[in-house]
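Page 37, continued from 36.
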């Protein structure tokens, strides 16, 4: 298996971010990423995608778009369009039409920060997803780094502490987003792919003569990432590699990671039956039984969940197994201690086990 690490949902100075695409790929190389996906608000930029840098510093830049409905107050229904490769913001006031157009263009659609809280002290509104009368979207942003900041910061003091000490802040996806995801899959009986998004802007905060960068890009890129598992190594040919990565993402062959406490590279959630081996994101027939295997980069608290409920828990294994004949949606969560707290570390996409 060939694992690539991406930071997704990044704003540049074409919308409300504070860096150019060229600067971002350099920061991504420093963070050890294979690629980044920028998503500026209601603007898609042509002619920038490709590989940048050389050797181990080589980084893939994909340019998507975060499209939201400006007619709503506050502007709502933020949708990440990835690989549509055309401007689609004219459909922003009709989420279903937008999702259909993205699909028609060979792109993927993810509901950005589907659950959020406002941060009134800083005039930050609640941008949760609102229109649930939709179908056919690829997935959701399970962990949005800046939404988490808004949700865990209650008041000026807490926001200031979380802004000044970002390594202390993150604990994992919001519980409400995790249960929303489990419910969506259960009620719709279809794949809903989870990705991690940084929602990086690198905002500048000025107080008199002083100014600080809040959540610098480098911090984001070392934190909440999406690890994409590909069937082949990257070839170096940009169009081929882009297609392979997009198809892997579409399948849900990926996991959401918090790489700051310890690298998550090498994690795998797989299942074996008489037909062979399947990985996270796959739908598989149980047949005479299914053997799940979880490989962790290090021993830590690891849970196997079935239909959103904890089925089994391990604390001292690097390889965990479970045999089942029960159909359901199985996924993995792993937690790791960091700076005095247990932090969400790995959130896998599910294996969908059907009879
Ligand atoms: Zn947004
Ligand atoms: Zn955003």
């Amino acid at each position: 298996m060939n694992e690539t690490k991406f930071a997704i949902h990044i704003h540049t100075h074409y919308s409300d971010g504070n860096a150019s695409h060229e600067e971002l790929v350099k920061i991504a190389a420093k963070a050890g990423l294979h690629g980044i996906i920028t998503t500026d608000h209601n603007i898609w930029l042509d002619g920038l995608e490709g590989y940048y840098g050389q050797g181990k510093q080589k980084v893939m830049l994909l340019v998507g778009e975060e499209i939201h409905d400006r007619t709503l107050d506050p502007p709502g229904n933020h949708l990440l369009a990835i690989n549509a490769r055309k401007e689609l913001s004219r459909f922003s006031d009709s989420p279903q039409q937008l999702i259909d157009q993205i699909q028609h263009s060979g792109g993927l659609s993810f509901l950005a920060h589907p659950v959020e809280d406002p941060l009134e002290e800083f005039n930050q509104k609640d941008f949760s997803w609102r229109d649930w009368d939709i179908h056919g979207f690829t997935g959701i942003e399970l962990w949005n780094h800046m939404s988490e900041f808004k949700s865990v910061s209650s008041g000026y003091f807490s926001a200031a502490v979380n802004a000044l000490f970002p390594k202390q802040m993150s604990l994992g996806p919001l519980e409400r987003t995790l249960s929303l995801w489990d419910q969506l899959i259960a009620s719709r009986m279809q794949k809903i792919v989870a990705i991690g998004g940084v929602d990086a802007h690198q905002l500048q905060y000025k107080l008199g003569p002083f100014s600080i960068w809040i959540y610098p890009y480098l911090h984001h890129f070392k934190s909440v990432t999406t690890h994409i598992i590909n069937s082949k190594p990257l070839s170096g040919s940009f169009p081929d590699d882009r297609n392979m990565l997009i198809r892997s993402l579409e399948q849900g062959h990926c996991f959401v990671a918090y790489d700051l406490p310890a690298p998550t590279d090498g994690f795998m959630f797989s299942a074996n039956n008489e037909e062979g081996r399947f990985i996270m994101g796959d739908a598989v027939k149980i047949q005479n039984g299914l053997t799940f295997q979880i490989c962790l980069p290090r021993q830590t608290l690891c849970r196997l969940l079935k239909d959103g409920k904890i089925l089994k828990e391990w604390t001292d294994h690097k390889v965990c197994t479970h045999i089942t004949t029960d159909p359901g949606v199985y996924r993995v969560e792993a937690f790791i201690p960091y700076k005095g707290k247990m932090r969400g570390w790995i959130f896998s996409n599910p294996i969908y086990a059907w009879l």
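The first strand starts at residue 2 and ends at 10. Flag for discussion at group meeting. The mean pLDDT is 95.
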